[in-house]
Amino acid sequence: MLKFAKLYEKAGLFTLNLLANFGGHNVRKIGSDEQGDLQADYYFVDKDAATVVFFHGGNWRSYKKEDYRFVADTLCSMGVNVLIPDLLKYPEYRFTAILEKASFLMDWLLDFLDIKNDIFLMGHSSGAQIAALIALNRELSNPGRNIVGMIGLSGPYDFFPFSDSDHWDLFGPEENYPASQPVNFVNNLSPELYLLHGASDERVRRGNSKSLMEKQLLAGGRASREVYSKMGHADTILSFSRLHRRKNRLVRDIQYFINTRKTFGEKNGSK
């Protein structure tokens, strides 16, 4: 799938999202008329379904929620609702503000939509780092939420010292550097981590997911990892497009993880 990476980076999003328009889900846009500058798209399938909160990637500086309709389309086909918030961007904002706003927005949206069923956090690339931090850092997550799992695609979780020159500013000031690393928050009480990586990822090395998994397990927490041959950094998210999702192992693995970790149906006596 490496040959499709350039498609994703350039004009491919338009085609992928055009195909996703045929999905059988309702889309609700939550905008500034309801809560200031908070913006999100809510893809609804069923009131009793689990909800996936998806944080998009883009090196903390690019892309927007509408670019990932194709991801929501595939997740909805699994029978879950999907919530995709917009994120603040660097260089206008540093990471501390980006993360705090993402966490606050997620909590506000879950309350606004009255979501009480199972919740899965999910993200790609920089969005996977944000999802992991919200799942692991108990100061960022509401203990009253029924967050049952975090799914990370190609995420950076253990990347200090920084290799990109502008990351020293993005994650600054210096005293904030440790707070950018999910491995610094491993514990035995957080939701289960499911970390997926492409074997050929040259942007975020797969050692990031290995490190987080091993340290989470050492801390007594729950974590597992999958590595996919012939996949690069963008390929893990491209797997969700209608062009690639059929017979795609990564998509099947995520569906299995969600279906086997859901608790709402069991608690309510449904099959």
Describe this protein's structure.
The protein is α/β, with parallel strands linked by helices. It has one domain (2-261): Alpha/Beta hydrolase fold, catalytic domain (Rossmann fold). Helix content is 34%, strand content 17%. It has helices at 5-9, 12-20, 32-35, 69-77, 95-112, 126-136, 167-170, 207-218, 235-238, 249-261, 264-267, and strands at residues 26-30, 40-44, 51-55, 81-85, 119-124, 147-153, 192-198, 223-228. Strands 1-2-4-3-5-6-7-8 form an eight-stranded mixed β-sheet, sandwiched between helices. Strand 3, helix 4 (69-77) and strand 4 form a beta-alpha-beta unit. Helix 2 (12-20) packs parallel to helix 4. The longest helix is centred in the middle third of the chain and has 18 residues, at 95-112. The chain is globular, with a radius of gyration of 17 Å. The N and C termini lie far apart (37 Å). Mean pLDDT is 89; it is low at 1-8 and 266-271.
Give the amount of beta strand, in percent. 15-25%
Helix content: 25-40%
CATH class: Alpha Beta
Q: Name the overall outline.
A: globular
The CATH superfamily bears the name Alpha/Beta hydrolase fold, catalytic domain
CATH architecture descriptor: 3-Layer(aba) Sandwich
The number of distinct β-strands equals 8
Instruction: Domain count, please report it.
Output: 1
Mean pLDDT: 89
